[in-house]
Amino acid sequence: MAMLHTVNKSPTDRNTLESCIRLAKKGGSVLLIEDGVYGAIKGAAKAGVVGNAMSGLSFYVLGPDLKARGISEDKLIDGIKIVDYNGFVDLVTEHDTTQSWL
Amino acid sequence: MSETKRFLYVNRKAPYGTIYALESLEVVLIGAAFEQDVALAFVDDGVFQLTKGQDTTGIGVKNFSPTYKALGDYDVNKIYVEKESLEARGLTVDDLMPLKYEDEDDDWAEKDSIHVVSSQELSEIIDQSDIVLSF
After folding, report:
1. Which of A46, A69, A88, B126 shows a CA-CA span of 20 to 30 A to B104?
2. ipTM of the assembly?
3. Domain residues for B62?
């Protein structure tokens, strides 16, 4: 049972991303949306949390939310894949269930 | 005319995810009409409000970031960004919009409004403010 986890809060405002990563089962995926996309920036103090989790979880980030916030692709942690809205739908259909962390 | 007070607006929220950033900007622009001594501080996730290249066409929300560039025309030209907040978020001043103003006391020379300050310096700035408004 692979689960898709969506995170929509900034990791420097709430601990949503850290809780998601701590509790998500290996083999699942994490999609960063809305203010959650700030968790994809490399060199940030919390970037290590995502980097360490990459061996067990696949990480995605929603492109339109990145662009809205002025975060360019070259600022992303290596290995995070950018998806558009169609890609979001694909991720939902490819996983058995979705959990929206708030 | 009453005595001029030192106003400081402290911005701690990212744009778009919540309404705080836009509301703060509206209040700053309204307040600017009252000819007070106005300064803005950007700390914590508030530094994300100033990132350059914001393009909201994909999320169906108004991009209000160009409005920050108009602040100089309203004599709002003291914009303090906390260095520690930038660093914790993997950002530098080069990731921010260049905000400028024309200094009427210096032959209208164009100058930077943004000042990157340490926590210690910002602490002093807050301490010396008469009225602090938090967003």
Report:
1. B126
2. 0.93
3. 6-134
| pLDDT of res. B64 | 98
Q: Tens digit of pLDDT for each residue in A49-63?
A: 999 999 999 999 999
In a domain, B22, yes or no: yes
Question: In this predicted structure, what is the pLDDT of residue B1?
Answer: 52
Q: Model pTM?
A: 0.95
Angle at A74 between CA A69 and CA A80, to 5 degrees: 85
Largest CA distance in chain B: 47
Contact B117, B127 (CB under 8 A): no
Residues of A with a Cβ under 8 Å from any B Cβ are 8-10, 12-13, 34-35, 38, 41-47, 63-65, 67-72, 75
Provide the number of structural domains found in chain B: 1
Strands B37-42, B6-11: parallel, antiparallel or unpaired by DSSP? parallel
Residue B1 placed within a domain:
no
Cα R_g (chain B), whole angstroms: 15
Contact A24, A3 (CB under 8 A): yes
Select from B12, B55, B96 the residue whose CB has the most chain A CBs within 10 Å, as the one to mutate to test that interface: B55
CB contact under 8 A, B17 and A67: no
What CATH number corresponds to the domain at position B40? 3.40.1260.10
pLDDT at B2: 64
pLDDT, chain B, mean: 95
